[in-house]
Amino acid sequence: MTQPLCGAATQDGRRCRNKAITGSGQCSKHQGAWTAYGVAQRKKKEAEAKLRKLRKKK
C-alpha cells in the first residue's frame, strides 16, 4: 500500500507532492489551522462572538 500525497495548493498553483501524514490527508508543511474547514470554523466563531457582543450592548 502506498502512502497518499498531500495535494494542497502551493503558491505556484500546483498541487503539493509530499507524502501525507497518516490520518491527516496533508503533509506536515500544509497541516494546521489554515485548511478550508479550519478557516470556516474560525469565521463562524468570530461571527457568533460579534453577534453576542452586539446583543449585549442593547
Task: Describe the fold and architecture.
The protein is 38% helix and 0% strand. The protein is mostly helical and 58 residues long. The chain is elongated and about 60 Å long.
Topology of this structure?
Blueprint: H1 36-57
Précis, in short:
With 58 residues, the protein is mainly alpha-helical. 38% of the residues lie in helices and 0% in strands.
What string, H for helix and E for strand, traces the elements in order? H
Q: Give start-end ranges of low-pLDDT stretches.
A: none
How many individual β-strands? 0
Annotation field: number of helices: 1
**Could you say which overall geometry the principal axes of the C-alpha atoms support?**
elongated
**Could you say which structural class the secondary elements and strand pairing correspond to?**
mainly alpha
Measured as a percent range, the helix fraction is: 25-40%
* Main pleated-sheet profile: none
Share of β-strand residues: under 5%
Distance between the termini: 60 Å
Rg is 17 Å
Mean pLDDT: 84
Keywords:
single chain; about 60 residues; mainly alpha; 1 helix; about 40% helix; about 0% strand
